[in-house]
Amino acid sequence: MDVRTKGIALLTLLLFSAISSFSISAANQPHKVKNLATPHRLSSAAVFKVQGNVYPLGHYTVSLNIGYPPKLYDLDIDSGSDITWVQCDAPCKGCTKPRDQLYKPNHNLVKCVDQLCSEVNLSTDHNCASPDDQCDYEVEYADNGSSLGVLVRDYIPFQFTNGSVARPKIAFGCGYDQKYSGSTAPPSTAGVLGLGNGRASILIQLHSLGLIRNVVGHCLSTGGGGFLFFGDDPIPSSGIFWTSMLPSSSEKHYSSGPAELLFNGNPTNVKGLELIFDSGSSYTYFNSIAYQDIVNLVTNDLKGKQLTREAGDPSLPICWKGPKSFKSISDVKKYFKPLALSFTKTKNVQMDLPPEAYLIITKHGNVCLGILDGTEVGLENLNIIGDISLQDKMVIYDNEKQQIGWVSSNCDRLPNVERDSEGDFPHPNAANFGIFGNGCPASSEDIDDQ
Predict the structure, then answer these.
(1) For the whole model, what pTM was predicted?
(2) Which of 11, 300, 396, 398 has its CA 20 to 30 A from that of 230?
(3) Beta bridge pairs of residue 64
(4) Residues 286, 309: Cα–Cα separation, whole Å
(5) Catalytic positions
């Protein structure tokens, strides 16, 4: 799900359906070498450096190499959807901004009869007029934004934490018709990296090839940046809070609950919440009743303190100004109480939400509430835990054990990974450092799942 700061836009609830046909040009593909996917790789992981922040950018991205020779694409990470798509180098509507980050297909369209194609269609009666028909997709967002395109399959290089390197062929969307709601401008990224648990996701495809366990996670820093990982190698052996995943009708995002809200450690009237964990949402959203209760709790607790409502700050719906301009959250922490979400079906499991997990400091020097009314923006009764509340936590989506976990972490530092001699981060996107050149190194392999 994508819920972004600009216009509070891109609230993602994926719906897939077939669309009209589309013809695409050709290019050469790399040679193939033997499949070296072996069971020992399942204990490994692929780790990627994340860039971005909650405010003012409103998104977190990774750079992913695609194709041969590989080309970098900056993609918005989104645990609320499963399909990955990039802007197509084709006649398009609502094209994303970076004209140098367009993907050119090369006779690698996924066919309509491919089993994966049925996974990206709403209709249970998926029929193909011809076996050679291409597989079309549509991603429709709750705010009426959308992406239409064709499904392709291409090489994506991965370097794993156990030292192995692979270049599997992965299916993803090549989008040529993007729509954005309201006055929201096209994003500065080339597309979306879907981390959800639908079969079209990169995660499930990597797992199906035997390269990793069916686990994905992220660690987002309040200072900006962080890391993303596919596989379970970075997960610490202790200290994690785990709660069960709820069955989802769409089976493409991660949800848990019921949970109740605590204010300064005390119970509140906000109970029975089912929560979607969504790295594609900048802020946290509650249904209108829960939202109003939270606003009342926070507002009433501020009475008599040196904060006054500031209606002139357009950054978020509710903001306050102080006796002087604020420069960081540390300037306002003394005014606000901590929140927490207690998962009532799991004993002693709660997610702490200190002030920095629900407040931002704007460029105007005010403090604003980063919890928003989801009903007001079209989410109806859904409750979404967005980036602001997931910061400084390693968040783990374990599809094998059907559980979601989190643990406080220093997200500026990669765990259990060999460091690159030029900096703190390794070579997760190996092509950047010449590992994938014109030749194929002996340690790498192409894995063709067709």
Answers:
(1) 0.85
(2) 11
(3) 73
(4) 21
(5) 78, 278
